[in-house]
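Input/output pair, single chain:
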Amino acid sequence: MKRQTLLPKQAQLLLPLILLGFFLRVWQLPQVPPGLWYDEAYYAMDAAWLLDGGPWQLFFAGNNGREPIFIYLQSLFIWVFGATPLAARLLAPLAGTLTLPLIYVLARRLFRSNQRRMLRWLPYLATAGLAISFWHLGLSRGGYRGILLPLAAAFLFYAFWRGWQARSLKWMILAGLALGLSQYTYLAARALPLVFILFALIWSGLHWRDPAVKPLWFTIAVTGLVSALIFAPLGWIFYQQPDLFSARTGDVLFRPDTPAELLGHLAQAIRLFIVNGDPNWRYHLPGRPMLGWLGWLGFWPGLLFALLRLRQPAYLFLLTALLTLYLPALLSTPPVHALRLSALLPLYYILFALGLLELARWLRQRFGAGIRPVAAWPRWVVTALMMVMLLETSLTVYDYFVRWAGAEDTYVEYNTPLVDFVDHLVALTGQMPVIIPLQLYVHPTTRYLLHDQFVEQPAPERLAGPVQLVSLPDNFRMLNVANIPELPAFAWLARRPDGQGVVYVSRPPRLAEQRYLRQEALAAAPEVYRDRFGRDLAYVRRVADAAPLAAMFTQPEPLRLTQINWADLALLQGYEVSPDLVQPNRPITLNLYWRSLTDLTFDYRLFLQIVDAAGNPINQWEGEGFREDMYRWRPDGILPTQHTLWIGPETPAGPYFIRMGFFDRHTGQRLKVKEWMNRPVDVETPPLDQVYLGLFYVSPDGTDPRQPATPLSANFAEVIHLIGVTLQPSLPQNPASKLKVTFHWQAQQPADRAYTIFLQLLNEQGEVVGGWDSQPFNGLYPTSLWSPGEIIADTFTLPLPEAGLPPGAYRLISGFYDFETGQRLPVVGGGDFAELGSFIIR
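Output:
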């Protein structure tokens, strides 16, 4: 009696391959890959924020734009397992494993009508090849949305082929659903519609009389219509914001400058199928062929065999899809990129399996003479095929889990130093609070690892006691941590009595705090924390009393307030210049306080110029204003950034400003200011693309030019206080002379507009015999930018009558008015001007 088996014969062969693939994808996860790379943490943070009540979006604009399906699915694992590296990566091995049975059914469907007994083994070989693929294995163990593309492509091709060949409307609709949803997986899916259009055009040209042509185009129409309906919501977003569609593709688009550069690029791309691999350690082992050490044994014979049978639909479809999905290698840089080319994987391994079988058939015909056609293949042929697959499996396991996983480059590229140090920080907070640079705290990897353990809150009124202060060496190995100034803003990590972690974010330190940090905190001998390879990673110093630093956390508001909206991307809420009285050949520090207005990637470059009172630049700097992740992970908080500028040794005494703006690094186009102090910028005037910040003074001898020679007290609407003037010793007597008056104002509260100052000389009859109107510093520093408590000293030059002044008594008066309405600011106590002094001409 024949024994019954529990599983069908197909499952008995397929199941071990799927289990092998699953094992390779989950073994030693998440320790391999080590750490948690920037992009993985970025996706995971978005997924965690969805669970925290964040908006469910059809397109995530941050980090150059990302399609949503991966992030939505990732949120399910974070909901179940918490914000851990394992939860961030669990989706990938499941998606990678699910692709294995799909490539089996795809290969079987493509060659279903082929009667050759040999091709029955093709689905198993294709599945085995993908299961042990280093390329697919690497994608299946990281938190990258590109792993969804081979899965989507395999199902899409299967549904389309079944819909066409079986004339099944149901499968045509499923193909349309798959094609539409694929656009929500990864940007390289945008090439998928071209596969079907090109295949239909070529097939129709070769077989225009074939009765299958009309069903083919009907299948294309149904698939396209359904996919268009599914894609419509995302397409509408791209229509409204074209930059979202082109942001990433524009960054990686290959633009050759010479024919030689073009040929070199094409040569690199073609080497993908020979010996070339992705040079990026995050996705591949540099120097290893992308398609495996033994891939050439099957791929090239399979490609040749497919070309010889080009007129048959399955072979034509494989070649058309392969070449179409290969376009990212030809059009982008670098030419070989594991994520962008991942849709090639199902096609490649079907051709690989086809080639191995054709090679085995040739060997059987060449060396198997005398064997009956219906008999099994010679055992040595079967053994050879098994040895090829076993050898490739062994090489993959060794290369991935030993060579690649243990390499220092992989350790660094996956930001494992940062992950290790964050784990160390969490342990340190069990002893006492820890203060870390803000740039370290706002990195998405740090934020994700701290997500479930530490909650950001406003600081309490009192912070004191011992703390541990963290600083990083100049050559720190934590990737994508923005450049850290010498004395940045900080994040205070502490634990409440119940064990819950809290985070307080500071502003950048001011002068007294800078002195304390240099003289006390940073002067102590540090404890050196080293990474797994013995490199210095961070320094931890014990500060006995954090009270001198408490104001940084409890009083985080900037000294000088602004409201400057840069193109609805970022709002400059305030700034500080320290010191505001500086000697030549000394540095100044500019602290900027930003609030994010969008989740778009902020890719503009910041420029800063030191300018004199006439607007002439004397020094400049340009570079990264702030990384978009720095403000993205503090959506309700202010992001302080710090920049250091240098005052040259020959800088003359006087008032100076800082002129700032943003520009596109590719085109040089300036970013426009949309609103100033909550008032829209007039679009009819020349666009405002730079602003002046200040005010600070250069004084070679250290004397303070802000102190008046003649104290006065005139309060203009409790907004501006005139505290005094400095006049020239006597009134000029000669014709065509001028009178210089230095005003000393102190801002009391923010002004809602830029007021104009008038300076008038009146005779005994109250007639104006000399006048001059201007905004402070000729408009470079309007009253709308003055900050409460700030002292502003500006010199006005009042022209006098050309004929000279006749004898008599004269008064010098001044005040403010609104240029648009002419309305003067009233003086508290009466009147609308202040008298600066009187003169008698004899």
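The radius of gyration is 36 Å. Residues 1-5, 370-375 have pLDDT under 50 and may be disordered.
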